[in-house]
Sequence to fold (427 residues):
Amino acid sequence: MKDIYILAIESSCDETSMSIIKNGREEIATVVLSQIDIHKNYGGVVPEIASRNHIENITIVLDEILNKSNMTLDEIDAIGVTYGPGLIGSLLIGVQAAKTIALVTGKPLIPVHHIAGHIYANNLEKRLQFPLIALVVSGGHSELIYMKEDYSFERIGGTLDDAVGECYDKVGKVIGVPYPGGPKVDKLAHEGKDTYDLPYPLDDKSYNFSFSGIKSAVINLVHNEKQRGNEINKEDLCTTFQNRVVTILTKKTMRALKEYNVKNLILAGGVSANKGLRNSLEEACKKENIDFEDNSAFHSFVISDGDNMQWTMGEFLDSPVYYGNKDRNRSPVSWTLCPINLSVVSTSTWNRFVTMKKDNSSVIEYGGGYQYPDEFAKNRPNREELLIEFAQRMNWHFKKLNIKIFGFICFKRGNTLKTTYGVQKVI
Fold:
C-alpha cells in the first residue's frame, strides 16, 4: 500500500504553521513560526498585524518544512488547510497559499474545520474510540461535541460569549502578567488559596458556557481593591478564578457523558494544556469509570508560550552536534517548536525521546523560545531561577513515568545559558 503524505497548513490566528503527516498518524516534520513577541506589546492578538506577518512568514515556513523533512512538493499527495473559524485575514493567507500550491502541483486540496482539527489531533496518539464527548477549549472556542462515529459532529453546547482561553488571557492582563496570561494564571492558581468571592459562570442545567460574567467580576474586583488602596493577592485570585471555571467545565462535561451514555472523553484545544482542568477531569473520570485520554503531547508542541519558556536550552541553530545527530528528525520537538509546559507531555512522547538510541538512552538538548531561542534568555535576570523550576518539573514528571535523570548540566557559553541533560528509561 502506498504511503500518503499530507502537507497541512494552519494560519487561523497568530502562528504560521505547517506539518507533513504520513498516513494520517505519523508526524514527519512540523514548523511553527509564532508572532507572540509582536502581539505581547499590545496585550493580545491584533488581527491586521497578524495577517500581515502571515504574508511575510508563509513562504519561510514552507521552505523550512520541506528542508526539515527532506521532501519536495512532488512527494506530497494532498494539501490540507484550516479554512475556519478564525481570524478572517489570517485564514485568508493560509487558504490562498494552500490553493496556490494545489493549483501549481495539481494536488488535491482538503479544507479542514478548525474544531475538527483540534479534536482529531488526539488521533495522532491513539485512535479515537466512539461514541465520545469532546471538550474543545481554546482562545477562541469553548464547545462540547458529541461524536457517534468518525466525522459525525453534534454540538451539544458552547460558549454564549467569551471563550475560556480568552477569559484566562484577559484575567492575566488585569492582574498584570505578560501576554499570553492563560498559562501564567494556571501556574499561579497552584500557588494560592480560594479566598475571593467570585461567581460560578452559568451554573445551570444546559451544556452552554458563559465566561464574560466572571471576567467582568475579576475586573471589577481588581478595580475596587485598587480604589481602596488594597493589594490584590494574585495567587489567591487566580486560584479562585480557576476553581470556578474548572468546576463548571468539569461539571457540564461529566453530565454530558452520563446523559449521552458515553464512556470516552477527549480534551482538545489550547486550554487542554491547563493543568487544573486536566487534573479535575482525570479525577472525575476515574470516579465514573470514564476513559479519559490525556493526549496532550500533540498540543505540547503546537501551543506556544513566549514567556514561560523564554530561556535557552541549547543552541540548535548553530550546533553541529544537533544537526549532525541522525536521530534529530525523529524527535517530536525541535528548535522551531516550544511547549507550553513540559509537564504536559505524555508518556508516549517521552518514550520516543528515550528510545531514540539502541541502548535505550539519549542525551537531549532542548531549546525554548521561537525562531531564535538564544535571544530570549540574554536579558532575563532570573533565568537561573527559571532553570531550577524547569528542572523540578522535569524531575517530577520523570519520576511519575519511572524515568531516571542521570545528568543535568548547566553552564554559560558567552551570553548563552546552555543546558544538557540525559535521561534513561527504566525497563
The radius of gyration is 21 Å. The CA atoms of residues 79 and 109 lie 5 Å apart. The longest strand covers residues 403-413.
